[in-house]
Recover the amino acids of this structure.
């Protein structure tokens, strides 16, 4: 995902995570400098260590269900003109 962003010249992305994806995204964001807006459910906050979040990653905690998370991510992406990676299913 991050390699594709670098190839495309994408400098900012929005991502959803249940925790496991977040760990990988945090590492690659730190290495690549890509700005990441990471949406996660409040029930998964224990999986994210704030001390390991690089300056170019912004965390957005969403209360509710996976559906709520996807809806919030889609609205944010459209309003901020930041692509979602991987792309949301239609």
């Amino acid at each position: 995902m991050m390699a594709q962003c670098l190839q495309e010249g994408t400098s900012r992305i929005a991502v959803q995570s249940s925790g496991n994806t977040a760990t990988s995204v945090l590492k690659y964001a730190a290495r690549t400098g890509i700005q990441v807006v990471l949406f996660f459910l409040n029930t998964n906050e224990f999986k994210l260590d704030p001390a390991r979040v690089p300056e170019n990653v912004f965390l957005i905690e969403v209360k509710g269900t996976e559906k709520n998370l996807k809806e919030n991510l889609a609205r944010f992406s459209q309003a901020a003109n930041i692509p979602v990676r991987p792309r949301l299913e239609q």
Q: What stands out?
A: The first helix runs from residue 2 to 8. The CA atoms of residues 14 and 37 lie 5 Å apart. The chain has a mean pLDDT of 87. DSSP finds three helices and three strands in the chain.
